[in-house]
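Observation: inputs received (chain + manganese (II) ion).
Thought: call the complex predictor directly.
Action: predict_structure
Action Input:
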Amino acid sequence: MTTGEQVVTINGRQVRLTNLQKVLWPEAGYTKAALIKYLLAVYPYMGPHLCQRPLVVTRWPDGICGKSFYQKNAPYHTPDWVETFTWESGEPERTIDYILCNNLETLVWLGNLACLEYHPWLSSIQQVNNPDFLIFDLDPSRPGSSAAVGEIALTLREILWKLGLEGYPKTSGATGMHIYVPLEAVYPYETVRKTAAFIASLVVAALPRIATTNRSVRQREGKVYIDYLQNARGQTICAPYSPRPLPGAPVSVPLTWEEVVNFTPRPYNIETAILRVNGVGDLFAPVLENRQSLKPVLSYLARKKVF
DNA sequence: GGGGAGA
DNA sequence: TCTCCCCAACGCGGG
DNA sequence: CCCGCG
Ligand SMILES: [Mn+2]
Ligand SMILES: [Mn+2]
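Observation:
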């Protein structure tokens, strides 16, 4: 990929790649060719987490220092082999044709459009009202809170364990972490969100000096924000393996719990993650398999009349 | 990044 | 032919 | 109902 333009054929579909030499991450010098090389390499691991989920992307055609925009609707002249999902929301009535990244050629096509961030819905189009995971988004309000993030994640793991649930951690690729709790796709978003709120409150009770669920930035006092409100339709949590538009081209990477003990926020980027992922495989594979029930925690909450 | 509208 | 504009507006919850 | 937040 040294020339500026070429056509690749993937699964019999032709994808035109343009401006391959364009630098998207200036200080690291990573080009669009590097981005597409990464997407090709990571697709076997990332693809299953995007499949059949309405997708929102952020695009940075002039690189991470240039202008960017969100894209929800499939753009005009989207190739006919790109699958889409039409979502009609009411009040005001609006229709969005979401892209479904169901194959490699779609991901490469998106890469050519300079899509850096990939935000799939928590629910798939098969059960669009029922998320497949409950998530916790740990956001440090100050840089240098990495040790606190790791400690909170490990405490959260223990609390989940006591509730009969298993969580799976990944870096966000920015400063914090995401913990996914895979579920049976039978609970409405509101139930999942309220359950997440309850669990987050248990974590804050255990670690009140470093964790908070306060949504007011000023009242967080430098603590780590446990954001459970991302458990809503259309929210934008970046997918596992998604690159980030930040210096050095970091990516969101699944971690083992042992790695969380010494959490560092950006251990891998679009270049180094390839070796990592080919070595350990998809640590997030269980997130698509281990569909857990909220029944124990929901009956507990019903007894305590928390709801 | 690329299509469409308007000059 | 050139330049400019558009690409998302939403869910949540507290005051 | 608006506002702050992500
Ligand atoms: Mn976050
Ligand atoms: Mn957040």
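Thought: report the result.
Final Answer: Chain A has two domains: 5-128+236-254+269-288, 133-235+291-304. The CA atoms of residues 119 and 238 of chain A lie 5 Å apart.
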